[in-house]
Amino acid sequence: MGENKLHNIAYSYVTQMSDLEEENRFLKEHADNLQKELEKFKKTPLIMCEVRDLIGQDALVRLPNGNEFLVSVSSSCEKPLLPGDSVLAEQKNLTIIKKITSRKSFDVEKFVIVEKPQTIWESIGGLDEQRTELHEVIELPLKKPELFKKIGIDPPKGILLYGPPGTGKTLLAKAVAASTDSTFIEVVGSELVQKFIGEGAKLVKEIFQLAREKAPSIIFIDEIDAIAATRIELGTSGEREVQRTFMQLLAEIDGFKALGDVKIIGCTNRKDVLDPAITRPGRLDRLIQVPLPKEEGRKEIFKIHTKNMKLGKINFEKINKLMDGFSGAEIKAAVTEAGYFAIRENRTKVTETDIIDAIKKIKKENEEDDKEHLKMFG
User: Most CB contacts within 10 A, which of 136, 233, 249, 284?
Assistant: First the structure.
């Protein structure tokens, strides 16, 4: 009887062991399958995202296209996450797999114009008043910051040049950069918006970092209205991206010291559409108008562009009146075109007729451009 009981106990134990081994084998197999599945999620291609915020155990991430999602963080992500971190996520559920070292997503110098301008003040005509203002708010603080410290005032961090196209805004910026031996970093606002959807804010940050590295420097933002215009509604993802880029620009300007060796010059043909936030005190608060040249200004500009030309007998007063309403760029274009008229006839001397015909051609081209513009937007 005792032997049977022991036999039953032993049998039961063996059976249980067999069942446990079977269950253990099954669980191990299941665990292996789960591990393989997990490894699949970790394999490329993974999508790179930016952590925007941390909410409990989850993270709010932004994808390269600008969309934002609240996602889980995998236990395999060992490093603690912080807002602004770059991470890799699997593409199905966007679960964060691992944090990656933050790096530049592009070489910023490939997307902006960086140069040491050679433009001299003498090559700019009819803008004496604007030159004086630039000397006071850009040149002096860069060359003699101790003057401002002694007086106890902070110069503007930046200025806004506004006026019609071709009036010399870029030339003024390049001339002040040359006079202060500053690196000139040119950014075009419209290209920033069109080419860098999802990356605009990051590029702005890197441009300002580049300016610090190459200081003394001047950041020249052409067509600043493309990113700094007043927007009533932020309906599309594109509009939200422009707003993010604009907010980053404001944050970078606010982060600069007024007496630092980096200055910002904004440029626009449409001051009326700008968001007041960009021109409030402490930002681009010195507004300098660059209008179409008046009679005396046209005379100076014409003289600058014809100084290396052989001119025949010319009635300068007549020419000046014909160019009424021309910008500096249009005066230069007319002079260049007059030179071509002489070259076509194998002449080395430019006549009054050449210049008059060139002026007429420029006016005709302007009229055709206006008609084309009316067809498109009228």
Answer: 249
